[in-house]
Design a protein that fits this description.
The structure holds 2 protein chains of 2 kinds.
Chain A lengths: L20 H11 L4 E4 L6 H6 L6 E4 L3 H15 L3 E5 L3 H15 L4 E7 L15 H4 L6 E4 L6 H13 L5 E7 H5 L9 E2 L9 H13 L3 E5 L2 H4 L3 H11 L3 E3 L14 E4 L6 H9 L2 E5 L5 H4 L10 E6 L13 E4 L2 H7 L8 H13 L13 H12 L3 E5 L3 H9 L8 E2 L10 H11 L4 E7 L9 H7 L5 E6 L4 H10 L15 H7 L3 E5 L5 H10 L4 E6 L27
Parallel strand pairs in A: 1-2, 1-3, 3-4, 4-6, 5-6, 8-9, 8-11, 9-10, 11-12, 12-13, 14-15, 14-16, 16-17, 17-19, 18-19
Chain B lengths: L1 E8 L5 H11 L2 E10 L5 E9 L7 H10 L3 E7 L6 E6 L14 E2 L4
Classes of the chains: A alpha/beta, B alpha+beta.
Bound molecules: thiamine diphosphate and magnesium ion.
The site of thiamine diphosphate has 21 residues of chain A, from α16 and α19.
Protein name (chain B): Acetolactate synthase
InterPro entries (chain B): ACT-like_dom_sf (IPR045865)
Organism (chain B): Iodidimonas muriae
């Protein structure tokens, strides 16, 4: 990610009266090219809020700091630029924690700025003092206590560069109130330039090409690193050159368009049968920006048991971390993929086998009965929305159905809390996506459990007239937990019943949204049309079968080919 | 399995906590540790760690994770008694120089 240096900045509004550390902070954000910040004010961050009016920054007031962090995260995923969130000390900071963990586990560039009590009060258990620096140490790429007003410009510049360099991640700046309020001399803010990743050397690339040439059953296993490394085009060209079949992780979806012939689907716990069979049968696994996460691999020892491993990643700590690589390439993924020219490959039989498996195991969409069948609805919705669609997801069965049945034209079209699996991500992520790409058709897929985790952000949609389309798949349960209790805890259902849910359509209307309820499969086409053509924020509340499960499922501790399938009763 | 390391740290806030936290979270137990400041403000930390039973992470993976910390300038594995580097891991994508000028940006660029 690079910005060109911006033009000299207009003086902030208060410059003639007083120029504070907070003004310097705002100026430093402007110098980084920041346009939007998501936040929530409070005591210790008040000097910063005092400096915001008159700046070029647009501040979006979410209704909870977690919403601000998730919105900043989604903004970053779509734009590739660090997302920025602001919160006050104490509870403001602690409310950001889940959002920081989400960005950490999904490698999202983010800069979070928290107010802190004034320096003389730090360490005294002052009002709203918590050690947010200490609390967040394991879930940030880096963090700083900005205790020197003279350092503000440099610290901000470095925070942005660190967040976006190499494997991206969140950076926390903890800003004591007296530093923000201190009167200081106006200065130009420096610009933090992310460091490019090194390029893999020629010999290493040639060795990789040779492995590919020798393979008879090569398979690409694409992960979130494709989007992070801006390697989508490079991957597509590599596949166009070689025709090697591709499987993707949850975060790698969209790296190859869902309907590309080489694409076999998502692998892993809720992956497609064709994808999981290909992994088990391949003789060379070309891991591109993925990390052998347990949701993708199942029992690690049984994962790709016949394959040599070629691991390409931007982060060398991932190479051989979980699965020993026969050959590892570290650095700029796009450069690697562009440089790999293995020549003509003798893999036609393998390509045919994979295509046959894909054909044999297509998803069935002809569910019996009048009720709404969620997979069919999601497939039709994403097809109707076209290539401008960005889907943001919450967590649960609906998230897995979205991953399985929606079509994604690019990785940025699928925003999901992959590593953390945080319920509550969907709606604030939709807000962030709409600021990142105001012309996109942004749809949030949520569940009746998840929506309640950040329901307050419906007020944010209304306040800023954001045309987010929300599809609420209501199974009156914490469905994913219910499914596991059914399958792995002998049907001992414990605390998963949500049959006392509020009337979600009424609730959405109370927040100022358009809302309607869908109960039958027959009414789905008209409902999709209504949803996608509505002007403002809209909630489509869909009643689905409370007993429906996500299939197939690789049970915990099993190999990926040992998938459980739905038992069809004649 | 044991691991004897020498780390060069920035004198930044929380550097030691980050290092110790990373070692413990990644499945190792710190058995012994000494620290001294060097002339150029760095802190040299010698750590002797033991891998917890059942934990899969290798010494090399741990050193790579440590090298990724922004506050870590260098990690070297040492033999048991003498401070001879057997393998040196310099932070990749982290630092290109150890001077006071940040490697990330040029001051006054705007
Ligand atoms: C913040 C948080 N708490 C708990 C969980 C554990 N969890 C995973 S899925 C799930 C159920 C989600 O219910 P709902 O949103 O209704 O989705 P459904 O599975 O019914 O589609 C729960 C509780 C989680 N992932 N995140
Ligand atoms: Mg539910």
């Amino acid at each position: 990610m690079t910005h060109t240096a911006s033009a000299p900045l207009a003086p902030p509004m208060h410059e003639t009266d007083r120029f504070t550390g907070a003004h310097m902070l705002v100026r430093a954000l402007e110098a980084q090219g920041v346009e939007v910040v998501f936040g929530y004010p409070g005591g210790a961050i008040m000097p910063v809020y005092d400096a915001l009016p008159g700046s070029t920054l647009t501040h979006i007031l979410t209704r909870h700091e977690q919403g601000a962090a998730f919105a900043a995260d989604a903004y970053a995923r779509v734009t590739g630029k660090p997302g920025v969130c602001l919160a006050t000390s104490g509870p403001g900071g602690t409310n950001l924690v889940t959002g920081l963990a989400n960005a950490w586990l999904d490698s999202v560039p983010m800069v979070a700025i928290t107010g802190q009590v004034a320096r003389p009060l730090m360490g005294t258990d002052a009002f709203q003092e918590v050690d947010i620096f200490g609390i967040t140490l394991p879930i940030v790429k880096h963090s700083v206590i900005l205790d020197d007003p003279a350092q503000i410009g440099e610290v901000v510049a470095e925070a942005f560069a660190i967040a976006a360099s190499g494997r991206p991640g969140p950076v926390l700046i903890d800003l004591p109130k007296d530093v923000a309020a201190s009167v200081t001399v106006p200065a130009n803010a420096p610009y933090g330039e992310p460091m490019p990743l090194p390029r893999a050397d020629k010999d290493a690339l040639e060795h990789a090409a040779d492995m590919i040439r020798k393979a008879r059953r090569p398979l690409v296993y694409a992960g979130g690193g494709i989007a992070l490394g801006k390697a989508t085009t490079a991957l597509r060209r590599f596949i166009a050159r070689t025709s090697i079949p591709v499987v993707a992780t949850l975060k790698g979806l969209g790296a190859l368009p869902t309907d590309a012939p080489e694409f076999l689907g998502m692998l892993g716990m809720h992956g497609s049968k064709a994808a999981n069979l290909a992994v088990q049968n391949c003789d060379l696994l070309i891991c591109c920006g993925a990390r052998f996460d347990d949701r993708a691999t199942g029992r690690l020892e049984g994962f790709a048991p016949h394959a040599r491993i070629l691991h390409m990643d931007g982060d060398w700590a991932e190479i051989s971390k979980l699965k020993t690589a026969d050959h590892g390439l570290v650095g700029d993924l796009a450069h690697m993929l562009n440089s790999l020219h293995p020549g003509a490959l003798a893999i036609n039989d393998w390509i045919d086998d994979c295509a046959q498996d894909k054909k044999n195991h297509t998803w069935p969409y002809d569910a019996p009965g009048d009720g709404v069948y969620a997979p069919a609805l999601l497939k039709d919705l994403s097809q109707a929305a076209g290539d401008d669609l960005i889907i943001t997801c919450d967590v649960g069965q609906h998230q897995m159905w979205a991953a399985q049945h929606c079509r994604f034209s690019r990785p940025e079209a699928h925003l999901t809390s992959g590593g953390l699996g945080a319920m509550g991500y969907g709606i604030p992520a939709g807000i962030g996506a709409l600021y990142a790409e105001p012309d996109a058709q942004v749809v949030t897929i949520t569940g009746d459990g998840s929506i309640m985790m950040n329901l307050q952000e419906l007020a944010t949609l209304n306040r800023y007239h954001l045309p987010l389309k929300i599809v609420l798949l209501d199974n009156q349960a914490l469905g994913m937990v219910r499914q596991w209790q059914e399958l792995f805890f002998d049907g001992n259902y414990s605390e998963i019943d949500l049959s006392d849910n509020p009337d979600f359509a009424d609730l959405a209307r109370a927040f100022g949204l358009e809302a309607f309820t869908v109960r039958t499969q027959a009414s789905v086409p008209a409902a999709i049309k209504r949803l996608l053509s509505s002007d403002g924020p809209t909630l489509m509340h869909v009643r689905i079968d409370p007993q429906a499960n996500v299939w197939p499922l690789v049970p915990p501790g099993a190999d990926n080919h040992q998938m459980m399938q739905e038992e069809v009763t004649p | 399995m044991t691991l004897n390391m020498l780390l060069m740290l920035d004198p930044s806030h929380g550097a030691l906590l980050r290092v110790l936290g990373t070692i413990e979270r990644r499945g190792w137990v710190v058995r012994d540790m000494t620290m001294r400041s060097t002339d150029c403000e760095e802190r040299a930390v010698r750590i002797f760690a033991h891998r917890k039973a059942l934990h899969a992470g290798s010494a090399e993976t741990l050193m790579r994770h440590l090298a990724k910390l922004i506050c870590v300038r260098e990690v070297a594995q040492e033999t048991q008694t003498r401070p001879v580097a057997a393998a040196t891991v310099t932070a990749l994508g982290n630092r290109t120089s150890s001077g006071s000028q940040s490697p990330y940006y040029a001051i006054g660029a705007v």
